[in-house]
Design goal:
Length: 334
């Protein structure tokens, strides 16, 4: 059993309780404690199985979840009745059936803003690493196979002065673009509407096809929706320059992973930098075998400061809803 039945105050009045699906920084738990809430945390060092989640959610007034928890109709139905708020410790919420939650009167919240800069840094980590073959070089050094400096060894591609195409000009895409000025890059972006901050950076809004055809680096920053699933498919990859580099720190399913593997293996695309995968934590062995791809374990927001702020923000959203106030960061239906 994951948690005891909700505790009773001496007066006999049940305290409101919050369930945390997997450990978060203690600063987030402190926000809940300070608000007088009883907190139960999944004691296991693993995400919960769907049945475990279903068993827990209806026994609490609020839930703090993570992007690995699938909050589907079944889970929401189990939560309904008692649970009033589910706060995800992430900006993306493609793991949550927001429409079903709205029908059941459960408020869904997320953690925008606090992870923007950290995630943009990670996109640049991938870009620079893929361009300069950093992963490959590190593997050689660690394996004791480095034979010394060689004029013709590990030749990568320059980043400065190149064209960066940003797909999705929200908070993170814009933060990635901001960093490009130090590299004197030409900026293109693809978004549904014109973005003043992007334009102020000198970025030009173009159709997706033009962006793919003209960019040396393509960095993806769209949420995963039915519209963006496999946005970068075989055809899109075929439009990219052969020496281009694709960066994905958004969601794995935005790219057709099999098509990407074929493009990288067949020399149709120079390289890629990935922080996200189609079926996490599975990473296809075909991808692992490729030298021209940098693979990171979904760490876009993984700094101490950012994860602490995400936890605090999720907790503040729960506290607000349980106090009958408006959530600071609600997820709204499109
Ligand atoms: C998010 O916030 O959506 C990330 O993928 C996890 O930090």
């Amino acid at each position: 059993m994951l948690s005891a039945p909700i505790s009773q105050e001496k007066s006999g009045v049940a305290r409101q309780s919050v369930f945390i699906t997997r450990a978060i920084p203690e600063e987030g738990v402190a926000v809940l404690n300070e608000a007088g809430l009883t907190v139960h945390v999944n004691p296991h060092h693993r995400p919960l199985q769907p049945e475990e989640l279903i068993k827990e959610v209806g026994r609490h007034d609020g839930v703090i979840c993570q992007m690995v928890d699938r909050i589907d109709q079944k889970v929401l139905q189990a939560a309904a009745g008692r649970c009033r708020v589910i706060a995800t410790c992430a900006v993306g919420y493609d793991n949550i059936d927001v429409a079903a939650a709205a029908k059941l009167g459960i408020v869904i919240t997320h953690t925008p803003d606090v992870l923007t800069e950290t995630t943009a840094d990670l996109a640049w980590t991938l870009m620079l690493s893929a361009a300069r073959r950093a992963g490959e070089g590190e593997r050689v050094v660690r394996a004791g196979q480095w034979r010394g400096w060689g004029m013709m060894d590990f030749l990568g591609t320059d980043v400065f002065g190149k064209t960066l195409g940003i797909v999705g000009a929200g908070r993170i895409g814009t933060a990635v673009a901001r960093r490009a000025s130090g590299f004197r890059m030409k900026l293109l972006y693809h978004a549904r509407t014109s973005k003043p901050e992007m334009e102020a950076l000198g970025a030009r809004r173009v159709a997706l096809n033009e962006l793919l055809e003209s960019s040396d680096f393509v960095s993806l920053h769209v949420p995963l929706t039915e519209e963006t699933r496999h946005l970068i498919d075989e055809k899109a990859l075929g439009r990219m320059k052969r020496d281009a580099i694709l960066i994905n720190s958004a969601r794995g399913a935005v790219v057709d992973q099999d098509a990407l593997i074929a493009a990288l293996a067949g020399g149709r695309l120079a390289a890629a930098g990935l922080d996200v995968y189609a079926h996490e934590p599975a990473v296809p062995p075909e991808l692992v075998r490729l030298e021209n791809v940098v693979l990171l374990p979904h760490i876009g927001s993984a700094t101490v400061a950012t994860r602490t702020e995400m936890a605090r923000r999720a907790a503040r959203n729960v506290v607000a809803v349980l106090r009958g106030e408006a959530a600071p960061n609600p997820v709204r239906l499109p």
